[in-house]
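S2.1 Query sequence (Glutamine-dependent NAD(+) synthetase)
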Amino acid sequence: MGRAVTVATCALNQWALDFEGNLERIVRSIDIARSKGARYRLGPELEICGYGCSDHYYESDTLLHSFQVLEKLLESPATQDIICDVGMPVLHRNVRYNCRVIFLNKKILLIRPKIALANAGNYRELRWFTPWSKARHVEEYFLPRIIQEVTGQETVPFGDAVLATKDTCLGAEMCEELWTPNSPHIDMGLDGVEIFTNSSGSHHVLRKAHTRVDLVNSATAKNGGIYVFANQKGCDGDRLYYDGCAMISMNGETVAQGSQFSLDDVEVLVATLDLEDVRSYRAEISSRNLAASKVNPYPRVKVNFALSCPDDVAVPTCMPIQWRYHSPEEEISLGPACWLWDYLRRSKQAGFLLPLSGGIDSSATACIVYSMCHQVCLAVKNGNADVLADARRIVHEETYIPEDPREFCKRVFTTCYMASENSSQDTCNRAKLLAEQIGSYHINLNIDVAVKAVVGIFSMVTGRTPRFSVYGGSSRESLALQNVQARIRMVLAYLFAQLTLWARGVPGGLLVLGSANVDESLRGYLTKYDCSSADINPIGGISKTDLKNFIQYCIENFQLTALRSIMSAPPTAELEPLVDGQVAQTDEADMGMTYAELSIYGKLRKIAKAGPYSMFCKLINMWKEICTPREVASKVKHFFRMYSVNRHKMTTLTPSYHAENYSPDDNRFDLRPFLYNTTWSWQFRCIDKQVNALLFLHGFISEVLT
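Output structure tokens follow.
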């Protein structure tokens, strides 16, 4: 009868403008799909050029090279007898569109432009592309000559249409279209489309996978059908990590799940499903069928091809499975680790250097690198030839095999404790013990000579010697002395990153890792151009609360007992003098707020879009059991004062792994001024009026009751 259809989807680790590598990975995915019996293969969004091309989309070269890759795909034996659905930019009547190009046996069947563009948060698609606004409309697209010579076609359909094969009907939607209130799959399903496809460039955010999976499953729960979801994976050149999660769903249930985090450049999912299950599911939904009788039909492109075989009665079909989600701690362990590996191998450096202070943030960063080493060894053990080749190139040994994470860590990871006269022996010991347990090449050094030299230059020029507050100096003097220490550490970090391997007789340089968390960046609790200034920062989008939970996860799963004392110690910058040999400075006292409070401020400011007055109004209810309205007002004012005073630091923030939706990253995610009127006079006056009104009301009620 031709009931069992076999479809494939994939997650590819594409790289912006790496046309050679992108082509190879696309062909490899098609080969795997065909070898598993698939008759249709779906790839990620803009997979030919890579999603993150940004302003390179304006260049005609990007369009030209995309068509050159398409030419190679059309000619490849791998693409014969399988419908291939690939993503690339296309210029139609001098307008750029984000498109799917669907072809079979050297013939282009349809070019389907994206209808709803992603244009919030990290996405700027409207900057480069125009949405296709002509619903259910198809035009002629005149193919470039290089494609005409392969296909023998002069024009092909371009627009909002669906494919009608011999046995079923397929309709495409792209990434953002799944997230819109009126997704195309709704009307397509009502018009008889049985297989929906979605090619995505969806990045990782902590706790986001549930939302994505629910959207895919709900797409067919009410309307019936098969949903095939493809996504990019890996770091394709910026702060985002695309987290795969390719999946296939039918009638509201997952039938195939891809990995969220892995070092495999190519991952292909194949499922065989019974079309009659879709038809019988739809048959009893009377409300759906009534709506279907009124729907405006889609243009159909007829395809003389079937996704099933005539004699398929004995073909086994896939059954529903339970999706396995990672905990947030697992996500932190795996996502940034995979991102670091991509950055390391693609930057062609020899490893990482981390200033390891013995505190939670730098220790969490070290644990992520250690997790990366675990992932590399596991991938090699599982036969990943790409990872093995990359590891050998990084360590400059042609026969090397990474088997022990600690041994591999020693080769690619250098940690450095930079002591000063204000550092405690406790943090020195913690850093040393953690380095021993993860296996990093560890350096202990003292920066006092450099600090005294720099301060000495100032004293020689001005005739004045600054002092710390505890020795009678002003707050300005004390802050300047703290900043000198912090900035000298940054200079030394880059010096050692460039020359440490040279000194050890090993070729190559190291990438400097930063370790400022998202809450510190939001508050501006960092020195501009200190060790927060690095090449990349794997924890810059992660909250202190989540990092503490991650540290506990590492204690339990990696047996890193050194982390216990790090967890129990209060966070401190150790930039002010010790008192009786003990640390007197703590982060939360310096900031005037707790890390837990910072997370709340960050979420209200960015996610809830709250200014000072709105934040105050929300917090007087949230904190009514623990704070008076006047105390809430004081806390809100202090946060906004400190946030606005320090906002300029975000303009130089180290590129950080994006993991939180309240990140203050100024690059493109959180666009704000960096020169504020830090008095917030109007806003704070509104808060004060509300506080007085509440106090008056409280007094009036008390008087009435007595």
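The CA atoms of residues 254 and 322 lie 7 Å apart. The chain has three domains: 4-312, 329-586, 592-705.
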